[in-house]
Write a structure and sequence with these properties.
The complex is a heterodimer of chains A (380) and B (236). Chain A is an alpha+beta fold and 380 residues long. Chain A has helices at residues 2-10, 13-43, 46-50, 75-81, 144-150, 191-197, 218-229, 236-250, 253-282, 284-292, 297-330, 344-370, and strands at 56-59, 86-100, 106-114, 126-128, 139-143, 161-164, 167-175, 185-190, 207-212, 232-235. Classes of the chains: A alpha+beta (380), B alpha/beta (236). Chain A binds chain B through residues 1, 3-4, 7-8, 10-12, 285-286, 289-290, 292-296, 299, 373-375, 377-380, and chain B through 47, 50-51, 54, 56-57, 77, 80-81, 83-85, 89, 91-93, 95, 97-100, 104, 108-109, 111-113, 117, 156, 168.
Chain lengths: 380, 236
Amino acid sequence: MISIALKMLFGDPVKLAGLVLGIAFSTLLMTQQGGFFISLISRASNIVGEAKGVDVWVIDPQTETAEGPKPMRDVELFRVRGVDGVADASPLVQSTATLRTAERRSIAATFLGVDDARLLGINPQFVIGTPEDLRRPDAIAIDRLGFSKLWPGEPLGPGKVIEVNDRRAVVVAITDALPGFSAPVIVYTRISQALAYTPGGRNRLSYILVRLAPGADAGAAVARISEQTGLKALTSAQLQRMTIGYVLANTGIAPSFGVVIALGAIVGILVSGLTFTLFVSDNLKQFAVLKAVGVSNLRLLGMVATQALVVAFIGYAIGLFIATSFFDGVNKPLSDLKGFWLPWQVAALSAGAVLAIVLIASLVSIRRVLSLDPATVFRG
Amino acid sequence: MTAVIAKGVVKSFGVGDTRTLALRGADLEARAGEMTFLVGPSGCGKTTLISILAAMLSPDDGEVSVFGESPFRLRRSQLTRFRMRTVGFVFQQFNLLPALDAAENAAVPLIVQGVSTGKALKKASDLLDRLGLSGSAYKLPGQLSGGQQQRVAIARALIHEPRLVVCDEPTASLDAASGRAVMELLRDVAVSPERAAIVVTHDDRVYSFADRIATMADGRVVATTTTIASRDKETG
């Protein structure tokens, strides 16, 4: 009976195309917009995810997001170092400044000043140069997206001189850092340089990056640091979640994307539901014949469910393929959408939504099949 | 041997002011080995009566027996199985599934019974050959003439060897020659000592194929006559 159901489905290519395209469009909207949304809000926490080797982040209790740290006093660094279980603690200064080239091109960048001695908190993906190059005078490491925007068309390479707030900086290394949310270009330098490039008040410490002693329990260490210093201590995952929560709560991104994703689901339900209902209605006579020759309602239900699932699978596969092709196309080193990806959870949720769409559509349609009087086959 | 007995069958449609009495106590007997025609003017209840005899519609009152079984005393699932095993259908509009080829259409009742697709298709192809459709087994209904489509429908009605074959205006959509050919075929293959065929028709050109003609009017069978074909058979 399954083969008969499939032949009925594929025997009407126009309606099949309508059904499949409805599901594909719906899948595309949900996965593309869902992935875009997750990628966008994740950007705010990229500096946390990129800082390898950090066990615990210590921040001012008033800080709500990784991209907007409230400054702390320098002395806090020594207090954190004194907490039991802390093997090492390094300062990290974050600020924003504009880079200007001799050709008068400029771009805003997030500056991350790392401890001069330890260099902890640097994105380890260096395309050209090494973190050690940052020890040289006026040295900065810029990501390749920033390099391509400042010197378009030029091959990546060290030695470029740049101006930051009337001070000289030399590009000594090029990284593959992921862009931030508020400023897409990420610049690494030593903390002493960062303070000079972005002058400000006396207290400039943004984060204290902690490495725990071998075997130390992260949860216990976090609690101890918070208790003994009065600062907020978080693991990388906790800080990322807090940052994403802040973006969701304080921007219109979530409702905006939510509306589009909901529209995708609604359009999918409407288009697929109506087309599927039409498909089943057009085939009612055929279902009546099958009923007349002794096909039970349960088997008819199985036939309609099979048709719905096949349509869902094909439509979902097409929609997912287009969405993944989109992310594959935009996630390039020199793209403004670098780092955008399609999380498998979004694809899984979309699959669930598509399944719900076709189940709703087939439930609406199957009612007519189940209540169908087989005697209608005798009525002309 | 009496194959089908209907006694005092009553059936109405609608409720209240819109209630229409389609059958008002119809009686009918059809014998195995015979082709019984059900004739009468439009709206006299022929289609309602064969729908009930084919166990597709339940009567409001009266008794129906098909080869000794009372289908309307069966549970719903048993009734579906009864129809699947006992009844074969030939419709006025053929009602072939357009996406299936001739052999697949003919094989549907066997596939429904759980016979493997390969075996069912083989049997369907053989039967189509017998019905003069060799070479058309893999054609879609849209590629066949009306007469050929009705032959496929006859193959579908007979492939599972049902004891009762019910035909609703089998010649109405065909020209005279094709109609005659279809009736000849039905007589040849649908009538056997263990099987009864009931044919609803308006087409008086094919009455000569009947063994017995039951005339209906106003929801009742008002006359039953045996025909030359039947008398010939009885006299040997």
